[in-house]
Amino acid sequence: MRSSPPFRNRGVAAGLACVLLSGLAYAAPASAASPPPAPLARGAQAPAMGDGLALTPPMGFNNWNSTHCRPEFNEAMVKGIADIFVSKGLKEVGYEYVNLDDCWALPQRDADGKLVADPVRFPNGIKAVADYVHSKGLKFGIYTSAGTKTCDRIGFPGGLGHEYSDARQFADWGVDYLKYDNCFNQGVDAKKRYTTMRDALRATGRPIVFSICEWGENKPWEWASDVGHLWRTTGDINDSWGSTLAIMKKNLPLHAYAKPGNWNDPDMLEVGNGGMTDTEYRTQFSMWSIMAAPLLIGSDLRKADEKTFEILGNREVVAVDQDPLGRQGEVISSEAGRWVVAKEMADGSRAVALFNESDRPQRIATTATDVGLPQARGYRMRDLWQHTDAATAGTVAATVPAHGTVLVRLWADRDWKSYPPALEAGQTDAWFTEAGVPAEVSTTVTNLGRQKAESVSVDLTGPAGWTVVATSRTVSEVLPAGRTLRTTWRVTAPAGTRPDVYGLTLTVAHRSPGGVRVVREQPVSAGVVVLPPPGVSFLSDSSWLSATNGWGPVEKDFSVGEAASGDGGPLTIGGTRYTKGLGVHAPSAVEYYLGGECFSFSAKVGLDDETGARGTAAFEVWADGRRVAATGVLTNALPAQHLSAVVAGAETIRLVVTDGGDGMSYDHADWADATLDC
Ligand code: GLA
Hints:
Elements lengths: L29 H4 L25 E4 L1 H4 L7 H13 L2 H4 L3 E3 L25 H11 L3 E7 L17 H11 L3 E5 L8 H15 L4 E4 L7 H4 L6 E3 L8 H11 L11 E3 L12 H13 L4 E3 L8 H7 L2 H7 L8 E6 L2 E7 L5 E7 L5 E6 L11 E5 L4 E5 L2 E6 L4 E8 L10 E5 L3 E4 L4 E9 L5 E9 L5 E4 L4 E5 L4 E9 L7 E12 L5 E13 L6 E3 L7 E3 L6 E2 L14 E3 L2 E3 L2 E5 L2 E6 L6 E8 L8 E8 L2 E10 L5 E6 L5 E7 L9 E10 L1
Parallel strand pairs: 1-2, 1-8, 2-3, 3-4, 4-5, 5-6, 6-7, 18-25
Antiparallel strand pairs: 9-10, 10-11, 11-16, 12-15, 13-14, 13-16, 17-19, 19-23, 20-22, 20-24, 21-23, 24-25, 26-38, 27-32, 28-31, 29-30, 31-38, 32-37, 33-36, 33-38, 34-35, 34-37
Helix pairs in contact: 6-7, 10-11, 10-12
The structure holds alpha-D-galactopyranose.
The site of alpha-D-galactopyranose (GLA) has 10 residues, from loops.
């Protein structure tokens, strides 16, 4: 079943509240990516729930992101997850709540107005499942809506007008957590609806974490500090990079509202669901943790791979999320897709995320004092994904892969000398190479510490079949503090290598002051590209360098279908069908390699007819870092617009679609007849 907005029944609360995503482009203007200043001073003392619940962000599981209403959401699944929490050590890591989402009930209440569990999914009732979860030392959560029906299109009974009876029933079943949605709310004031349920939950006498899920529509961060323990700040997440990024950007500026007992909720984790890369899932996990977000696992752990468990089970990252001070990380800087976010920790240290929004590797840097630490001679810097320590004189920097996040923790530590100097290693810029043609690239290793690094050596290895030859120095007997070892390499991908982005490994070794050999591997990447054919050609006949999309994959010669590749309809704008082009869903960015060989780009752009009169989007063309053409906001009411751009000399072209400023719902956007003249 599809759950994207065009196919969902949201009752009177139509449309998702998603963010304008104009900062998606690789070379996004700084202003587009900078969040507005937070409206409250840090630590603003709005009244909290005061019941001692959710003093750190709730951790656990919720089935929605992996099952929606499909039949595999049932008793066996819920019990299976509880078992895995114990057997795989996730309970030890801190995951506690096992929560049911929508579709657990029958569509009708019983004669007494009580909710009835779906007898097919839950043949033994809800209490039996809750008891099972409790027997594992875990807690149990349930879902309903602050309206007359829930959000699934079948529409299960909602809690509006039944608050006290439903809350009583939940408490009798042993519910420890309630997610309270917003569909079919009949236009009743949100504060009133959520406050009534809060009071009903309190009246049961059972401690129940109260999760407000009104998608940020009524700014609950401004009024709900004594109503709920957490509140959704955005519309629904889906398992795509575009959605994750949009939600992250909407949640970051709300940092001042988070505190023990009150959390901003950017929706549940997608880690392990398959629509993103492991790098992107590590980014979601890192960024959700630095934002002190609830960590509700959204994948079916019965089918999860080891990588998924490794990400979800990273205790050092979880410790950032669960820090008792309860601060949400703040954006320190954000420029051209390079984000620095820092979170003050209870022990005075800072967690620092270097997050690369762009589609190619970038160096991201900050300093210990910029993230709020006092001046010191040296700092201990711990990499929370590599689990290594090093000493820096103050610079915190890394070459971060596309969509990746480097997460470190930084202490002003008098013992900094006991750690080896931090060596920052990376590629100097994005690497492109044609299969079978040698490319010259360079790497750098910089000593960020205060002490010299000795016997520094560097090696670069490519995927099987690639040849990599150093064409300059790879060793430095002594690399003083602040100095760089720069090495050039000749890299050749074998003839016939498919165009794509490939990972290479830069291995850096050195001897610490204590004589210990330190070896670290730094991922780098190279795009294998093909030059576009001479003359006029359709872009949909070429391979892109990278593609991100708000829902499902970008489609060639079809509109976006939102799920699998090839599931779209014909490209149709204003009643005209096109056989060639790209079908995307805002927010989207598709990048192609031009190698300086092309003159111009042309397309007919617009919203695809298939979403009715509901879509809005704006189209932009970027040549390298420059925006060379753009439309205003287009709607379904408009015929295709001709968009052309001069791209002479550019190495890459990037086709960007933003959501038109009203959230991403229904934004099926077409680049019809997109051609290059080279
Ligand atoms: C809404 C919520 C989602 C999920 C679904 C269930 O869309 O925002 O998180 O609970 O309803 O129908």
